[in-house]
Amino acid sequence: MSGSRGGAAAADLTDPATLQAVARRVGLVARHRLGQNFLIDRDVLDDIVAALAIEATDDVFEIGPGIGTLTGELARRARRVVAVDLDERCVAATRITQRDRPNVEVAQGDALRVDIASFGIGEGWLAAGNIPYSITTPLLTRLYEMADPPRRGVFLVQREVAARLAAGPGAWSLATVAVRSVATVERLRDVTPASFEPAPAVHSSVIRLTPAAGLDAAARQSVLDVARAAFQMRRKTLRHGITHAAGGDEALGVAWLREAAIDPGRRPGTLDLAEWHRIAVAARTLPGHP
Hints:
The protein is α/β, with parallel strands linked by helices. It folds into 2 domains: 196 residues, Vaccinia Virus protein VP39 (Rossmann fold, 3-Layer(aba) Sandwich); 69 residues, rRNA adenine dimethylase, C-terminal domain (Helicase, Ruva Protein, domain 3). It is 38% helix and 17% strand.
């Protein structure tokens, strides 16, 4: 474990009594619409930090610091931490709990829109955070679509979402295609509701993402265009879904599948990224592209 990067020993922010005291000080009440559930489990916190494998020269971008529970652990190890939260009361709380750490910058902003480069994040940066269900897929795709994505990211997400993103063959969704076309996904551990205050109604999981080399931007967009149309009919066979992607032209859709060597009787969730790419290539190259 690395030594402290400034400041005296901090209070244990996983202690519910400390959490409540900090929350009272800034008038923070957990808001369901923002997916606010604050981590109070030291073991989970330690596992997140370990999975991120921070080096002393790293910059870390944290999404949704809450009261700074993870922020402080990141700051003890990293060169610099930039923490962004949409809730001004969480910003105030994190500034209070991390006030003795000169390598922490806390800003109010929407992680889906904030210009990460404007913070001067160093090359080979890391990302971490407790991500609300409603923004998980768009946020992760945004991070890993960047020209300089985080070299590693560790996130707390809803267990159902983690299972979908890390799914093996046969259980893919459109979200799986979107994220796995830019990143590899590992599901590291599950987390019970009791690990949070207030306790959510669902279980969570810790996932780790690393950039995936593969499709260029144009090829990825072609894959997503075809997959999006097919998953609109996810319970039907690919004959129906790819016909939909082909503008309703069944003969053309079946021709795409034949060219890609994909059985029309399969369902969208059974395809992996390479197979979606073959269909997208066929869609671009065969005559009659809609």
